[in-house]
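We emphasize that the prediction below concerns an isolated chain of 388 residues; any contacts that depend on oligomerization or on bound cofactors are therefore not represented. The input was used exactly as deposited, without trimming of termini.
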Amino acid sequence: MRVAMFTDSFLPARDGVVNSILMTKAQLEKLGHEVYIFAPEPCNGHREDGVYYFRSLTYKRYPGYSFSPFPTNKCEILHDLDIDVIHTHGLLFMGVRSMFAARTMRLPVVVSFHTMVTDAAKYYTPMPIPEWMTSRLFWIYLKQLLERADSVVAPTAAIKSELLTYAPAMHRVDVIPTGVDCDRFRPENDGSGIRHRYGLDGERVLLHVGRVAMEKNLDLVIDGFSRLVKEDSMVRLLIVGDGPAKKHYQDVVREKGLEGKVIFTGFIPDEELPQVYAACDASVIASKFETQGLVGLEAMASGKPVAGINYRAVKELIRNGENGFLFEDDPASCAEAMWSALDHSDELRASTRRYALGYSVQLSVEKLVELYKYSIERKKMVLDGKVF
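Result of the prediction step, given as a C-alpha cell string:
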C-alpha cells in the first residue's frame, strides 16, 4: 500500500503530531507499506530526504512552525507515486490541500484528529477575536473537513465523542491511539547520565515533557510544585522541551523563588528521551489541550506513574491508583497527585508498565491498516455510485 501523509508540522519541529507520524511511518514501512510525507517548507531551511515540501511562511506568534497558503499543485507527484490513500495529520492548510488533492485524484482520505485547534487558537490568533467566535468558526470548518473524509481517526474515546457532537455525519470514526514504542521506553533504561547532567543525583524528580506553550497549562504544574517544595526540599521539576512560552514560565519560576528547583532543559534529542524518562520518578500532565497524551504513555512504558489533569483524554488515559493519579484544575489537588505519583510502590510501577503494553505501536498500526483498506474500498464504491 502507498500512503501519502499530509501534515502541518514536521521535522525539525518536534511535537506529538510529528512523533506520531514518525512512529506510524516506521511501523508501516516495517510491514512493507510505502509512506510519503507532504509538509510545509521549514522556516530555517532544514530539509529531510524524501519529503515533499510546500512553499511556506512562518507563524510569527509560534516560532518554529510554518504554514503554506500559496497555490500549488502536487497532484502530478501523487499520480507518479501511484498513491492508494491520503492520510492527513494536519487540520489547517494541509488538511485543505489533502482534500483538494484527493478530490482531483479521486483518492480516499483518512483524517487523524491529533490537535484540539479550537483550544489553542486563542493563544495565537493575530486579531482580538472573542474566544467563543473563534471556536465556532473553527468548528464550522472542521465539521466540513471531518464529514468529507472517508474515515476519521480519534486517538481516544473522549475525542471521538466530542467529534460526533460537532460532526455527526462522519462516515466512520475509529479510536486508534498513537502507539508507544515499548521496546524503546522501558523500565530497564539507565537515566543516571541525565541525572548527573542536570545535578539531580539523590533528588526526587518530577518530569514534564512537551512544548513549552501556554496551552500546556504549566502554570498549574508550577503552582502545585511550589507546594511540594515546602514539604520536601529534595524534590525537583524537570521541564523538557522548548516553545513560545518558555520565557513566561522562566519568569514565573523566578517570581516564585523556585530557581534551582525547576530546571528547563530546552530541546533534548529524541534519541535521549528514553533516558530522560528513566531519570525521573514520576511524570505530570496538566494540559486540557491533549487529544491523547503520548508523553504519558511513554512515561508509563518506562514504569513511571503519571499525575494528570482530570479532563478529556488525560482523564481517559490515567486509571487512578493503577498507573497514576488524577487531579483537578487546582494547585492543591495537583500537588497532592504529584506527591502520590512520586511516592509510588514497585507494584504501581509494574502495573503502569503493563497498561502501556496495551498501547503498543504495532497494535495501533495494525488497526490503521484495516481502516486504510476500508477507506479504499469505500472510495471505490462511491466512484461506482454504490454509496454516497
